[in-house]
Amino acid sequence: MQGMGSRRRKWLAAVAILIAVGVPAYHGLLKHSPSPTTPFPLDLARIRALAGSIPGDRPTAVRYEEVMALRFAEAMVMAGDPWKETPMPVYAWQLVFPGQTLIVDTAVARADSKPEFLVLHYDDAAYGRMNAAMASAAQIVITHEHMDHIGGIAAHPQLAQLRPALRLTAEQLANRWGMRPVTLPEQPLAGYEPLRYEGLHALAPGVVLIKAPGHTPGSQMVYVQRADGRELLLLGDVSWRLRNIQRVRERPLLMALLIGEDRGAVIAQFAALDELTQREPGIALVPGHDRPAVEALTAGGMLQKGFR
Q1: Span 43-302 CATH architecture
Q2: 89 Cβ partners below 8 Å, 6+ apart?
Q3: Tens-digit pLDDT profile for residues 15-47
Q4: Which of 28, 108, 190, 279 lies most in the core, judged by the most C-beta atoms within 10 Å?
């Protein structure tokens, strides 16, 4: 009996230690979100000035393809959310100008969409339209270097022909680790000179790149002012969902560690974007993987489904 009592005390002590260690660890890894400390510069007046600095017609439409969707958990999208399955749609974007197009993000080829058990659906026709549109695009940019955004470039069968249109930044090109498991073929890009800029870069009439490192070193947002004056921000994966910005709440630490994200930088971007929408509610924010947000903007005429 004495031995049983001793074993019971040891077992209870072990459980107490696990609770003492596990509860704070669970909170820190999955429920805690940092507070913004260093502000992220988002000078809308300068962005708008740059949007008008290149003469020419501005885009008349912003179109998109949903190439695929992944299975994900809400708890991995925002710290403290429940362990409930949620779809993560993967988009490519097409800015339509009179006489030319510009593509933002290129999804990922079916062969590279791993692991397969996480894929809810894959639309081969949508990928085919995006892939064909790349061949005629005047410029091709990516919001960041993760596989579901750069994968279409990596897998394109005529990458050498696309090269004059590619606007990969120096930070994106340098982060080969972040592209895994896709890789950019060496030979078609041998000697390629990447885009280098600080802060902001006027890309086309009405289009400005906004450097936003944090989610990845090469992360950037794309500001678009349409010909009708309406404005939107393609956020890439600065924010996966609009809700993260509205609550200024980051992905959990566990997810940030897995993808190598700078949480301090990202939460500062959330705060700046939240403040921007309060000052300028007419600017539409387009998160990287938010189907309800995309559908609402489509219903309102800001976005149109299907590449041309």
Answers
A1: 4-Layer Sandwich (3.60)
A2: 66, 68, 69, 289, 290, 291, 294
A3: 333 334 445 666 678 899 999 999 999 999 999
A4: 108
